[in-house]
Write a structure and sequence with these properties.
- The chain contains 10 helices and 8 strands.
- Strands 1-2-4-3-5-6-7-8 form an 8-stranded mixed sheet, sandwiched between helices.
- The longest helix has 32 residues, at 258-289.
- By secondary structure, it is an alpha/beta fold.
- The two termini are 14 Å apart.
- β5 (156-161), α4 (163-174) and β6 form a beta-alpha-beta unit.
- The chain has helices spanning 10-24, 94-97, 134-147, 163-174, 196-206, 213-216, 222-226, 229-232, 258-289, 305-323; strands at residues 46-51, 58-63, 71-76, 103-108, 156-161, 179-185, 240-245, 294-297.
Length: 326
């Protein structure tokens, strides 16, 4: 039976945003791992929790597996991640896509410009008070909490867009005991390519005033290589992989209105063209290593949420097959 893909009309998007907003006002069960006793995971339903970390309590939005299964999909945000909600929960229909599946959606909140990695120090450009320790949180603190709610420490998938796309591959590569699947949508997967390190520096300054040197150190630091999917690609062998990118051309979901809309769409076109170049290079790299992956290069599409929502839908069968979570 063929599953029809969702159509993202303006009316549907408004309805989905309203549904997400309504879900977010449901009573949240706040938990700080290590200081509170967690309740068993329900079969289905939505919850917001707070999980303790070296960065302080981190908010996590969770949609529990429909039939109490132990598999989970972590959904990582982009460079401009907000402190109140993970954008997968309101910019897309991810909750609806997996609502009837035996898979828990895990959406951590926050981490603007973090690349979901462990930083050397707080950013000294914007007065950051704590040092980002996102890799530690996502691979130690959060799975420890989820295990108390019936989620397996080893039956997990991770997907992300843009910043979160490269981070998803990094987390899966170095934590094979946790993740079986990794997905990247419009990710930057060849960050050692000419101009990429400078581009990331500028992008992080624009998204919150963060200093990239506090993250991976100067450009010659080994941390840059550790977090470059093109470099660590051999570590991905044996993982189920889904990699996608548009080509930067305006498509069915691009409807710029006014000068601001045109400016934002122009930026999205440029960012996606760069993501395409990175992703094509990464495809060649995996092919040279004999590592199989599902690649989806669309005939149009910019760096924007409607396209990533559609890619999540396309990747859903592969995720559910890998996690045995239908």
């Amino acid at each position: 039976m063929r599953i029809q893909r969702p159509r993202f009309t303006k009316r549907l998007k408004q309805r989905l945003v309203g549904m997400a907003a309504a879900a977010l006002v449901l009573p949240a069960f706040a938990v700080v791992a290590g200081t509170s006793t967690a309740a068993a995971a329900p079969a289905g339903g939505y919850e917001e929790v707070f999980v303790n970390s070296a960065m302080g309590p981190i908010k996590v939005q969770i949609q529990w597996a429909a039939r109490g299964g132990n598999a989970a999909l972590y959904l990582l945000d982009g460079l401009r991640a907000r402190d109140d909600r993970n954008a997968w929960s309101f910019e897309t229909n991810a909750l609806d896509q997996f609502r009837n599946d035996n898979l828990t959606l895990v959406m951590p909140v926050g981490g603007q410009s973090s690349f979901y990695t462990d930083w050397y120090a707080p950013s000294n450009f914007n007065g950051q008070k704590v040092t980002y320790k996102w890799e530690t949180f996502l691979t130690q603190d959060l799975p420890a909490y989820l295990a108390t709610r019936g989620v397996s420490r080893s039956n997990n998938a991770v997907s992300g867009l843009s910043m979160g796309g490269s981070a998803a591959l990094t987390l899966a590569a170095y934590h094979r005991d946790q993740f079986k699947y990794a997905g990247s949508f419009s990710g930057y997967l060849n960050i050692s390519a000419p101009g990429m390190r400078e581009g990331i520096r500028i992008a992080m300054l624009d998204a919150g005033g963060y200093n990239v040197d506090s993250m991976w150190g100067p450009p010659w630091s080994p941390a840059w290589l550790r977090n470059d999917p093109f470099v660590f690609a051999p570590l991905l062998k044996g993982l189920s992989l889904y990699i996608s990118s548009g080509n930067g051309l305006m498509g069915e979901f691009d409807r710029p209105v006014g000068s601001v809309g045109s400016f934002n769409t122009s930026n999205a076109m440029g960012l996606e063209a760069l993501a395409l170049a990175n992703t094509r290079a990464f495809q060649v790299r995996l092919n040279s290593l004999g590592i199989p992956a599902t690649f989806d290069f669309t005939s149009s599409g910019t760096h924007s949420w409607a396209y990533w929502s559609e890619e999540l839908w396309k990747s859903r069968p592969q995720i559910l097959d890998t996690m045995n979570a239908w």
